[in-house]
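hiii, so i know i said id send this last week but things got crazy w the move. better late than never?? heres the sequnce for the chain we talked about at the cafe, plus the structure i predicted for it. fair warning i was half asleep when i ran it
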Amino acid sequence: MNATDDLRRLLPPLITDEQVRDLPLHEGRQALLGELLRAEPATRRVPTAWRTPRRTALVGLAAASTVALIGLGPLFLGDGGPGEPSDRSSSWAGAGPGVYADGDWVVAADPAWDLTYVRDAGDERELTYDAPGGVEVTIHQRPAVAHDSYLEDRADASAPTDLSLLGSPAERFDYSADDHTVIAEPVGAFFLEVRVSGVDAAGLSAVLDVLQPVAAGELAAYLPDDVVLAADQPAALDAVFATVALPPGLDRGTAVSRAAADLEGATVASTYSLGSAVVDTLVCGWVADVAAGGGRAQAVTALSDAAAAPFAQAMDLEGDYTYILDEAAVALGRGDTPAQLAERTGLECP
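okay and structure toks below
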């Protein structure tokens, strides 16, 4: 036996995962909230950590005007410039393109492509895929009126090369040897721009062959399970609100309407985004109830229970937006004002 063995004998035994799960943490958490309810409101509170609400969802919910889209284009796509050639070859097996028509979405026909982001802001759509071989593909459908402005901007990267994209004349611009963008002529309300990173010019056509136009009614078949279309969002929100306590005077129908408004008209939304809208609606509802003379203890209990609800636990696997439920419970227990809660969480209730 050496000195290390002697030291180990003096240390307490390691706690197992099973023992951690058996710890009465929930009771302790409830007791802490009870103490907060009985405590005098703090006159000055200095938080140890300030966090901005984070929605790590597939869907970005903010709509942008055409002018803003034109201005932000260079920020999203970079300034271009020379780069080193990629050693990835053009070993793609395309599915064969269709012809893009007004109103269509454009998706990847290959199930090996992983959809990581989808957004519909009304006047712009965007889907981003991680494709095999480390290739990233972003499909933009931008306002037709902005077409010439985008062409002018992309011409700063390189001279254009003529090609065809889903049946429409298009031009390719090269930011580097393995980073390209392709802009097609407008069709109806949109024009297509496809950004492809990770293949050389020879392999680009095979990547574009995987793209496929689909009618809006067929889009659901090409989306992950955690993306909810507009027609299904009210039912999904209602199902979540059925699992939590709502403040007096806020019925489920009104809660669904408020949460849907929080989505700002998104025609596609991830379950995480739906959950974030539920969090906003719950917190603002209980804050308003307390401000109107409602029971502070009831609000704290409801928000604490919501943080442990199945929808919140599922959200916690993707991001940390549900922390607002805990922050609101603590704030209401202390007697903080809505303005103080907004300062701490970034959530401003109407």
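btw The radius of gyration is 26 Å. thought thatd interest u
miss u guys!!
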